[in-house]
Specification:
The complex is a heterodimer of chains A (318) and B (641).
Chain A: H1 3-26, E1 28-32, H2 42-49, H3 52-55, E2 59-62, H4 71-76, E3 82-86, H5 87-95, E4 100-105, E5 112-116, E6 129-133, H6 139-147, E7 153-157, H7 162-165, E8 171-175, H8 179-185, E9 195-197, E10 208-213, H9 214-219, H10 221-240, H11 242-255, H12 262-275, H13 290-302, H14 312-315
Parallel strand pairs in A: 1-2, 1-3, 6-7, 6-8
Antiparallel strand pairs in A: 3-10, 4-10, 5-8, 5-9
Chain B: H1 4-10, H2 12-76, H3 78-82, H4 87-100, E1 106-111, E2 124-130, E3 133-139, H5 150-158, E4 162-163, E5 167-170, E6 176-189, E7 195-204, H6 206-213, E8 222-226, E9 232-234, H7 248-252, H8 256-266, E10 271-277, E11 280-289, E12 294-301, H9 302-305, H10 307-338, H11 340-353, H12 369-415, E13 429-436, E14 444-451, E15 454-462, H13 466-484, H14 490-502, E16 511-519, E17 524-530, E18 536-537, E19 540-541, E20 562-564, E21 572-575, H15 577-580, H16 592-599, H17 607-622, E22 631-638
Antiparallel strand pairs in B: 1-2, 1-7, 2-3, 4-6, 5-6, 6-7, 8-9, 8-12, 10-11, 11-12, 13-22, 14-15, 15-16, 16-17, 17-20, 18-19, 18-21, 21-22
Helix pairs in contact in B: 2-10, 11-12, 12-13, 13-14
Classes of the chains: A alpha/beta (318), B alpha+beta (641).
């Protein structure tokens, strides 16, 4: 071997060792739920606490988002390897040029509702001021508002229901597993008239799923698969052990200084688990439904939320 | 004491004492019940006044703090609006507010996006009190878009000043402080009235929380404060602070009373409600805090308010119960003691009733009802003893008389022939007779004898009953046999007997009699009926043409008689009125018709069978009724041989 050859061999060894080192660094999966610690992410906490990730040979760290570091930001900036996103959010990101892969779909139903402050059908309040999360999640509502010419004026709020409570807005978007119960806990009275559930009006589009950037996924397929399997196991365990799951959730809630209580988390867990059951098959399927993807893409494109169609194929792993 | 009811029923003293205690209980319950209800009302009213006063004072003090914040903000809001051309000066004004108002923790004067071209998209002048030093900084960046914050948007959207819900001061750099603050937010408008931003003054709720928490009108009472959303901002259980609302328990377990309380507090009402609050029966007094939408409440457990009252209540109830038990025992003893003579009397009465009539009764000196009863009982005992003595004497006498009567009866029965068949060696005479006195001795008689082929017989019935009649019967009986034995005709016998009986008959007694004589060779019947029932011959009443007077009534020179040529093979029945006039319970007589019916078709029966048949018929007719008269029957037939 001449010097050139030696240098080449040395370079190969160096590159290889650097690659191994890099591999070791990236072995850790940083997972970020799209919100602060709540029962909405119980399955992942269970997988972490019951050692499902570890048993799969994974080193998973759960990092919650902050105001300055949202889950989407963290994924975009490659600070997190996996994050939960709603289907519509994921499609928006893909449309914006960030290819993502859905490695696990947990939600099989849509949880978004509109709650009217007065005992008045939200659909009859054209031009009403309607609250929407500053962090997003309102794509379906925007589409519905445009499609039905409701012309809602969207007021973005940061974290709680105070604008709604004080009467600063006429209605608000809410999640059936979270804000809905928060409002109940605030003494708000729900009637048949003042709640509009998107899932019951032809907008039953799946929500939460776990996503990775496609490039990261391509280089970590095995890890991604194991992460998805362990997470799914976590959710299945949670469904079978709700009380112990709640204990785990409350530990995360306390560690993250979240203002909530066990009762709310219990109701949230129950509702989240309910939303995971497919209406047609009556099973917890953990899969993205092509029909829902197609419908969501079509709806969002028609209402100018997507420039191009995002297909089922673009979203799935293989 | 197997059965208490029987035990009580057996004891007058127990019963009386129970009744007294029962009445006393009713009176106590009514009186104490009224007393307790009224005193409970008074205690409740006192508690309401006390708690309301404490609550009013608390709210007044809190409101004065909140008012200072409002006034401070209102006094400074004109400054930034006047100096919009120099945005940096606004930083000074926000600090100035804090300098002038030590109650405030922070103040931000924030503007709409891109309001100041020179400052970019964000401009929020924020001053805060950092442990005594006032720090000022310009806030707002892509990570902290303040115009989406509630405190900013509330004033903007509502377009009037508003208090935010208390919230935990949230540090974007993930440094969590548990300090709860609230902001008074007011929209800022330019001179044209256009909304340009929000001025917001913050206060720490620490002082307020401490002051509200310290309100404790009762040892176990506590205060709570909730925001407009029902969230606890003051609560003795710190785990509930900010985490739970007043409605949280209703999420899993509907509680309309708690929900109504929460809604009333949310509506800013002032009032008091009694309900089960956090596991305790409590009175909750609530009042709103100015225009904040928040509400303060004092929770007073009922056990605290009514603690003294309940203690007193329990003591009084215990005293009353013990008193009633003592009363029951003492009254029982006293009544038992007072009624003891009655008991003694009862025992002695038992002894007397068992036959010991001379049992000595206690010599009680009492003059009350029991004394009177004792006295009466003694009198009764004396009377009883006397009566028993008389009774014994009378009984002995009666026994003697009965004994004598028995002897008389035996004698009387011995006077009439009672051996049947009477003439065993004569086949031609079938005769049977029976005499049954209604009492021990009777006034009926019969007799018969055969002399010189002549059968003499008679049946008689003396007027009256008993011993006089029996004696008259004895005389009559002897007289008949004595005279008849002189072979005289029946009417001659009757005439002689009458002559004898009427003599010295001061009692005017008489006897009806049928006297007959049959010539056994020819079958000729001679008879004399002296006022007696017509006999039955061959199933028919004997047609008697000459009926004579009864014997013994008055003198008669000659009795008439009749002759029937041949009565052989015919049944002749002679009887006294004890047969046809036998009465049953309904006083219905047997009657002649029935008698003839009985006598029909008897030609094949013997005299004894006929008489037995008649006696059975009489017994059947009486059906258990006592005999109303002596019954004498004589039946005979002379057979042709």
């Amino acid at each position: 071997m001449n010097l050139k050859g030696k240098i080449l061999a040395l370079t190969i060894v160096l590159i290889n060792s650097l690659s191994v080192a890099a591999q070791k660094v990236t072995d850790k999966i940083i997972f970020t739920p799209q919100w602060t610690a709540h029962a909405q992410f119980a399955g992942y906490y269970v997988a972490q606490e019951k050692g499902f990730y570890k048993a799969a040979g994974l080193d998973v760290e759960i990092v919650h988002p902050s105001v300055s570091q949202t889950a989407m930001n963290r994924l975009q900036n490659r600070e997190s390897h996996a994050t939960t996103l709603q289907l519509c959010q994921a499609m928006e990101l893909i449309d914006n040029g960030i290819p993502l892969v859905n490695i696990l779909q947990t939600s099989m139903n849509n949880a978004t509702v509109i709650v009217s402050r007065r005992n008045k059908d939200p659909l009859k309040q054209i031009g009403a001021r309607v609250g929407m999360w500053h962090a997003g999640f309102g794509q379906i509502a925007i589409c519905m508002s445009r499609k039905d010419h409701l012309n809602y004026k969207w007021i973005r709020f940061t974290s709680n229901m105070d604008l709604f409570l004080k009467g600063a807005i006429d209605a608000t978007l809410a999640m059936s597993y979270n804000e809905y119960y928060q409002l109940l806990q605030m003494g708000f009275t729900f009637t048949d008239n003042n709640v509009y559930r998107f899932c019951d009006h032809g907008y039953n589009i799946q929500e939460d799923g776990v996503y990775m950037r496609r490039d990261y996924y391509d280089s970590h397929k095995n890890q991604a698969r194991k992460f998805a399997q362990a997470s799914r196991k976590g959710w299945e365990w949670a469904a079978n052990h709700p009380e112990e799951t709640l204990d785990i959730v409350m530990k995360y809630v306390r560690d993250n200084h979240i203002t909530t209580n066990r009762t709310l988390q219990k109701l949230m867990l129950k509702e989240v688990l309910r939303l995971q059951v497919d209406r047609e098959s009556k099973k917890r399927e953990f899969r993205l439904r092509p029909d829902m993807v197609k419908f969501a893409s079509q709806l969002m494109k028609e209402n100018q939320l997507l420039k191009n169609d995002v297909t089922y194929k673009q979203l799935i792993a293989e | 004491m197997k059965n208490p009811i029987i035990y009580i029923r057996k004891s007058l003293s127990k019963r009386l004492s129970l009744i007294v205690v029962l009445i006393a209980t009713i009176i106590f319950v009514a009186a104490l019940g009224f007393l307790f209800v009224e005193s409970r009302k008074a205690v409740r009213q006192e508690a309401i006044s006390r708690a309301t006063e404490v609550l009013d004072n608390t709210v007044l003090r809190v409101n004065s703090l909140l008012d200072r914040v409002v006034i401070a903000t209102d006094n400074f809001e004109w400054l930034p609006v006047r100096h919009l051309e120099t945005p940096d000066s606004i930083l000074t004004y926000s600090a100035r507010i804090l300098q002038c108002n030590p109650d405030l923790n922070g103040c931000s004067i924030s503007f709409e996006p891109d309001f100041f071209k020179s400052k970019g998209r964000y401009f929020s002048a924020y001053s805060y009190n950092n442990q005594g030093t006032i720090e000022t900084e310009q806030e707002g960046n892509d990570q902290y878009e303040y115009f989406y914050m509630d405190w900013y948007q509330l004033a903007k959207l509502l377009d009037y000043p508003v208090w935010t819900e208390p919230f935990v001061d949230y540090n974007p750099e993930a440094v969590y402080t548990r300090e709860v603050i609230a902001s008074y937010c007011k929209p800022l408008r330019d001179y044209e009235g256009k909304y340009i931003g929000t001025i917001s003054s913050d206060i720490s709720l620490e002082w307020l929380s401490k002051m509200v928490s310290a309100v404790k009108p009762y040892p176990n009472s506590y205060s709570i404060m909730i925001g407009q959303g029902g969230t606890y901002f003051v609560h003795p259980d710190t785990t509930k602070l900010l985490n739970e609302t007043i409605f949280t328990p209703t999420l899993e377990q509907p509680d309309s009373a708690l929900s109504e309380l929460g809604h009333a507090m949310q509506r800013g009402e002032t009032g008091m409600r009694q309900l089960m609050f956090e596991g305790k029966d409590s009175y909750v007094f609530y009042k709103p805090l100015g225009s904040t939408g928040w509400s303060v409440a004092i929770v007073c457990p009922e056990s605290d308010i009514f603690g003294g009252y309940n203690r007193l209540y329990n003591i009084v109830i215990a005293i009353v119960v013990v008193g009633l038990i003592v009363m029951l025992i003492v009254f029982g003893r006293i009544i038992h003691h007072e009624l003891r003579p009655l008991n003694t009397l009862a025992l002695q009465a038992e002894t007397i009733a068992s036959g010991q009539f001379n049992q000595a009764l206690p010599d009680d000196k009492r003059i009350d009802e029991i004394g009177k009863l004792n006295h009466s009982f003694r009198n009764m005992q004396h009377s009883l003893v006397n009566y028993i003595d008389e009774l014994k004497h009378t009984t002995a006498m009666q026994a003697s008389i009965e004994s004598e009567l028995k002897v008389a009866s035996d004698i009387q029965m011995g006077m009439i022939p009672r051996v049947f068949p009477p003439f065993p060696d004569r086949q031609d005479i079938d005769l049977y007779a029976s005499m049954t006195p209604a009492k021990e001795v009777g006034g009926d008689l019969y007799d018969y004898f055969v002399q010189d082929e002549r059968l003499y017989f008679c049946v008689g019935d003396v007027s009256g009953k008993g011993i006089p009649a029996s004696m008259f019967m004895a005389i009559t009986c002897n007289l008949f046999r004595m005279i008849a034995q002189q072979n005289r005709a029946p009417w001659e016998i009757a005439t002689q007997m009458n002559a004898f009986l009427t003599r010295d008959n001061e009692q005017s007694m008489f006897v009806t009699m049928f006297i007959g004589m049959i010539d056994l060779r020819k079958g000729v019947l001679e008879f004399c009926n002296c006022g007696h029932n017509a006999p039955i011959l061959d199933g028919k009443f004997l047609d008697i043409k000459d009926t004579n007077q009864p014997l013994g009534l008055w003198e008669c020179k000659a009795f008439n008689g009749e002759v029937i040529e041949d009565i052989r093979d015919k049944q002749l029945l002679i009887y006294t009125d004890g047969l046809n006039e036998a009465e049953n319970m309904q006083k219905e007589r047997l009657g002649d018709e029935r008698l003839l019916e009985l006598m029909a078709d008897t030609s094949n029966l013997s005299s004894q069978q006929i008489i037995n048949k008649l006696k059975d018929a009489v017994a059947h007719h009486r059906a258990g009724a006592e005999p109303n008269d002596d019954l004498t029957l004589l039946c005979l037939s002379v057979k042709t041989l």
